[in-house]
Amino acid sequence: MIDMKDVHKDYANGVSALNGVNVHIDNGEFVYLVGPSGAGKSTFVKMIFRGEKPNTGTVKIDNIDLSTYKERQIPQIRRKIGVVYQDFKLLPKLTVYENVAFALEVIEESPKLIRDRVMEVLDLVGIKHKARSLPDELSGGEQQRVAIARAIANKPKIVIADEPTGNLDPDTSWGIMKILEDINQTGTTIIMATHSQEIVNTIKKRVIALENGRIVRDEAGGDYGYEA
Ligand code: ADP
Ligand code: ADP
């Protein structure tokens, strides 16, 4: 599970992005993170995969305080967490297969495991038939499927999705949501920052709303709660 206690984050330029965040997220939950631009959503998720460190307060995953990890141990945190971005962040010169395989090579999985697992996850997200394609030969929705395959390749306990449908049209977005729900069904915790009123109000999940770096609302099956 994920625990944050009185987390404050100020950036070097003096911007205060998180202002005393307290939250508990259990294993297997699906959580939407909503709020206006600049509310602190990206900073919140960065606290979890140690993309940024809090100034004060504690962030724990499975009861281990992330501040006890040394820089060189950060890969151990990342191994538990898959991250999906709005702009996919695929490596443009690598094929679909290679993009996913690369994520497993860097954690030194065996070639045999890599071969099996890459095709397995590409199949899971419905993109196996494009294994030899380059990212720019794919549509946005297809690229996001590859990014999700990469994120789940090493079976992380947590998947963080920072506006995963932000660059996709509505039809494509529903397909991506279906995949995230399937991944959640296998017990993986999903934390998804989003501006999609339609998705949040249709596929009901726990909603955590941030404003000015504070949690202003946290409800099971909540609404988006802002004007689109
Ligand atoms: P959101 O994801 O809700 O849009 P962010 O967490 O990206 O919010 O940003 C929260 C605040 O922190 C904003 O004012 C933003 O400009 C600022 N911020 C985010 N990242 C940085 C950074 N690396 N350096 C300085 N300020 C930042
Ligand atoms: P996001 O969709 O993740 O909120 P942004 O466009 O806000 O993306 O930020 C892109 C990158 O720039 C992030 O790494 C973020 O931390 C950084 N960033 C955001 N706001 C600022 C800022 N005011 N000063 C410096 N860096 C920032």
Automatic annotation (TrEMBL):
Q: What GO MF annotations does this protein's record show? A: ATP binding; ATP hydrolysis activity; transmembrane transporter activity
Compartments it resides in: Cell membrane
Instruction: Report the PROSITE patterns cross-referenced here.
Output: ABC_TRANSPORTER_1, ABC_TRANSPORTER_2
Under InterPro entries, the record lists: AAA+_ATPase (IPR003593), ABC_transporter-like_ATP-bd (IPR003439), ABC_transporter-like_CS (IPR017871), ABC_transpr_LolD-like (IPR015854), Cell_div_FtsE (IPR005286), P-loop_NTPase (IPR027417)
Q: Where does the source fall among the domains of life?
A: Bacteria
The Gene Ontology biological process annotation of the record reads: cell division
Membrane disposition: Peripheral membrane protein
Q: GO terms for CC?
A: plasma membrane
Does the keyword Chloroplast belong to this entry?
no
Where does the ABC transporter domain start and stop, copy by copy?
2-228
Keyword Cell division belongs to the record? yes
UniProt keyword annotations, A-Z: ATP-binding, Cell cycle, Cell division, Cell membrane, Membrane, Nucleotide-binding, Transport
Known function: Part of the ABC transporter FtsEX involved in cellular division.
Q: How does it assemble?
A: Homodimer. Forms a membrane-associated complex with FtsX.
Give the family per the record: Belongs to the ABC transporter superfamily.
Q: What is this protein called?
A: Cell division ATP-binding protein FtsE
Source organism of this protein record: Terribacillus aidingensis
Q: Which gene encodes it?
A: ftsE
